[in-house]
Amino acid sequence: MKRFLLMLLLLASPVWAVEPREMLDDPVLESRARDISAGLRCLVCRNENIDDSHADLAHDLRVLVRERLVAGDTNTEVVDYIVERYGEYVLLQPNRDGANLILWYAGPAMALFGLILAIGFIRQQARKRASGEGRPDALSDEERARLQQIMGD
After folding, report:
1. 37: nearest Cα among 13, 59, 15
2. Do 68 and 113 reside in the same domain of the chain?
3. pLDDT tens, 17-32?
4. Against a cut of 0.85, is the pTM above it?
5. Mean pLDDT, to the nearest integer, of 60-76?
6. Dihedral sign, CA of 140, 142, 148, 151?
7. Bridge-partner residues for 41, per DSSP?
8. Structural domain of 104
9. Mean pLDDT of the 47-63 span
10. What confidence tier does 74 reach under pLDDT thresholds 50, 70, 90?
11. Are 71 and 80 in contact (CB under 8 A)?
12. Cα 63 to chain centroid, rounded
């Protein structure tokens, strides 16, 4: 039973892609590298950060981040260097400025617009029902007589 629980525990633990040979000896620099890597997207795996990815490009990015930190760059300088080299797509959380504002706010704005349209449509339909619009007109005398004839037969 103990072996089974141990195996489950080992299988359930996360598998990190950062290899021991990539890690820095200085724990402060390594912690900074992990913080930076958590915000960088693997360009091969798409929605996975570079620390979790096993792709070769993710390995190269992890090494590059650590090289820049050892060279004395700040966290911001490292991220700026990576973005300059690979484009803003490498960021898991894109910047909220410039043209990106359109992307950040377009979804909520469209949802609000749709809600306003839906409320307007519902109110219009309620007004039509209250005023009697949209209902079929009453039967004429001829139609009523014909209906009586059909129903009586």
Report:
1. 59
2. no
3. 566 666 777 788 888 9
4. no
5. 91
6. negative
7. 49
8. 100-152
9. 87
10. very high
11. no
12. 27
Question: Looking at residues 77-93, what average pLDDT do you find?
Answer: 90
Q: Which residue has the tokens 């109110």?
A: 123
Find the CATH number of the domain harbouring 30.
Answer: 1.10.8.640
* 85 in the same domain as 20: yes
- Whether 49 contacts 37, CB under 8 Å: yes
Q: Domain tally for the chain?
A: 2
Is 81 in the same domain as 116? no
Scored b (16 or more CB within 10 A) or e, 127-146 reads eeeeeeeeeeeeeeeeeeee
Report the chain's mean pLDDT, rounded to a whole number: 82
Residue 118 tokens, joined: 């839906």
Structure tokens at 55: 């792709």
106 lies in the same domain as 80: no
Residues in the chain: 153
Q: How far is CA 49 from the centre of its chain?
A: 14
Q: Is residue 62 part of a domain?
A: yes
Q: Chain centroid to CA 5: how far?
A: 35
pLDDT at residue 14 in the model = 44
